[in-house]
Amino acid sequence: MNESVSVPAYPAIACYGLTKAYPGAFALNGIDLELPRGQIIGLLGPNGSGKTTLVKILAGLLQPTSGHVLIDGLEPGADTKSFVSYLPERTYFQPSMRVCECVKMFEDFYEDFDTGRALGMLETLGVPYRAKIKTLSKGTREKVQLVLVMSRHAKLYLLDEPIGGVDPASRDFILHTIIANRDPGSAVLLSTHLIQDVEDILDGFVFLGNGQVITAGDVHETRARHGKTLDELFREVFRCF
Amino acid sequence: MFLKLFKYDFRASARFGVPILIAVAAAALIGAVNTGITVSNVGKESTFEAVTNAPFGELLIFLGMGGLMLVSAALAVAAAVMTVLLLVQYYRSTAADEAYLTFTLPVTPAQILWSKLLNTLVWSAFCGIALFLAGAAILGTGITAAGIAEDFINTFGKMFAFLHSTIHQSGLTVLLVCILGAVSVISSYLMMFMAITFGSVIARKHKALAAVAMIFLINFIMSGITSVMQIILLGDFTLKLAFDEGAANVNLFLISCTILHAAFAAVYFLVTRYMLERKLNLD
Question: From CA A196, how far away is CA A84, in angstroms rounded?
Fold first, then answer.
């Protein structure tokens, strides 16, 4: 009896010659990258290195000037949005919406949304289910958004600066939420410049500077090879940037 | 997915649409009471002198007319506020922070645009109907208070009969006028959507300001172009109307105008969709 085992044919993310140009400047300049499934990958770079631009292109919010980007073998569009879970830097819910309406909205639009998981996390956080978004503190709003994004059984999670501007306790909550809720087999691309806080949860990393990939690889291998933490390596590499 | 999008757009609009409709109903009630009191006290006098000589006649007229003007102004403001808020909602969900959610939902930009358009049309229709009913309530109260309801019903009956015969005789023309009106409204909203999107795409800062500026600028330009084209069409048809069979040419003129507005609407839609798909400018 032949048993066929389905092996995913495509990497989670593939970029070939990806360029995004604005008048007088390149936000991304010829990025070539293939990121595997099943890993948490840090997209690391100083401010203005092109991290957010790359994440927005992957999320389908921006179009590249040239080059190609494939997510699970597909160009970003309505199809990829059904399996890509994106957390932007901004809080995007209408302030007049209630938390329960936000949950219902995700349930309505995303087939991979796990309502039970979301409700469990909201309860743990003590977020009032019927509270309006505008009555919540900025930190709680961001947590609600993170909870909803991580409650999807997505193939790819794009998290843009999820720990930027939050207190250390909240950082722990956010990182724990990411690790505990991502599906095995799914890829997580986590953009940040706070290397020290995320280093321990990363499997892979990409150093981005001036819109180009400076270096990329496996976190553990790189640490062993250089005898340095990723944070130390980051400081060394980006000293001149 | 389209119906889900529309459901959320409709609910978002209901947050300001329902209070506006309630305000219209309240204004209609105040207007009707005001008109009823004024007309029942002074409306039955046959001359202006008799009105002013009646007890508190001048005061009643002043309050009655002033009240009616205020209510009319309030109704006009309600219509304007509804339109502005619908456009603000479009801006927020396609160019401000909410756009991060709008454009990461598993839907196409065309579906987003259709949903916004349908939602805007539905709420505009609600507002139009509410204003019509408010006007009818105020007028009806005045007529009843003046004791001329029977006369009015007779007159209205004649008007209706005339309208009915007109529709019967020129049904196609009336239908074409209605279609032209609907297409013009759709075209106008799509033009404003395009202007908002264009403003927010080209602006590096102050996107909202740029969007508002573009509404005025593009509206000004397109009004000029539309007027010139309609004058060309109308000029040609006016000559034909004078010498040829009227109705057929009126219909042809209406069809031409409808095609013109539909063509503009299609261009607005395609340009807006292109910008939403390829040129999003989210901070």
Answer: 26
Chain B contact set for A65 (CB, 8 A): none
In a domain, B76, yes or no: yes
Residues of A in contact with B279 (CB under 8 A): 63
Chain A CB contacts of B1 under 8 Å are 109
Q: Do B97 and A92 touch (CB under 8 A)?
A: yes
Digit-coded pLDDT (tens) for A116-147: 989 988 888 888 889 999 999 888 888 899 88
In a domain, B163, yes or no: no
- Please name which of A208, A207, A143, A202 lies closest in space to residue A177, comparing C-alpha atoms: A143
SS3 for B282? coil
With H, G, I as helix, E, B as strand and everything else as coil, classify residue A153.
coil
Q: Do A109 and B12 count as a contact with CB atoms less than 8 A apart?
A: no
ipTM of the complex: 0.87
Work out how many domains chain B is built from and give that number.
2
Residues B94 and B134 grouped into a single domain: yes
Cross-chain CB nearest to A61 (options B1, B103, B106): B103
Judge if B128 and B28 occupy the same domain: yes
Interface contact flag, A93 B279, Cβ < 8 Å:
no
Whether residue B132 sits in one domain with residue B27:
yes
Cut 0.90: pTM above it: no
B134 and B179 assigned to the same domain: no
Which residues, in sequence order, are CB contacts of A157 under 8 Å at separation 6+? A84, A85, A86, A87, A149, A150, A178, A182, A186, A187, A188, A189
**pLDDT tens digits for range B72-125:** 888 889 999 999 999 999 999 999 999 999 999 999 999 999 999 999 999 999
Q: Range of B144's domain?
A: 1-148
In terms of domains, do B135 and B10 share one?
yes
